[in-house]
């Protein structure tokens, strides 16, 4: 059995919206479990919030996320970006276009010095992304 490294994103009260958005970007099967499903919170207001979300795309990408409970601190800034790379420019351009909707572009998706098409953005949920299409970095 292989070992996998999977991005796990933290949200404050909008994990369901974010994970459903990522399903429109990457496709695939989305599984959402709430705090209420597991009796994991004494706060009735958190019963419908996401304790664990997992998106598995047809191409094998796995993205996880959850709401941070009200009693826990959630860092609003991070030194991490989610990087998606490959050789299929059309596929990666599609991801870029959908992630950019309502987001902020730091570096346009364009020809990079290393020969790939590359861009950086922060999506509407505050998640930083790097997309690289072409030669591996």
How would you characterize this protein structure?
- It contains three helices and eight strands; from the N terminus they run βαβαβββαβββ.
- The chain is of the alpha/beta class.
- The strands form two sheets. Strands 1-4-3-2 form a four-stranded mixed beta sheet. Strands 5-8-7-6 form a four-stranded mixed beta sheet, covered by helices on one side.
- The model has no long low-confidence stretch (mean pLDDT 93).
Give the tags:
137 residues; alpha/beta; four-stranded mixed β-sheet; elongated
Chart the SSEs and their pairings.
Layout: E1 8-11, H1 15-26, E2 29-34, H2 35-38, E3 50-56, E4 62-67, E5 82-86, H3 89-100, E6 104-111, E7 117-122, E8 128-133
Parallel strand pairs: 1-4, 5-8
Antiparallel strand pairs: 2-3, 3-4, 6-7, 7-8
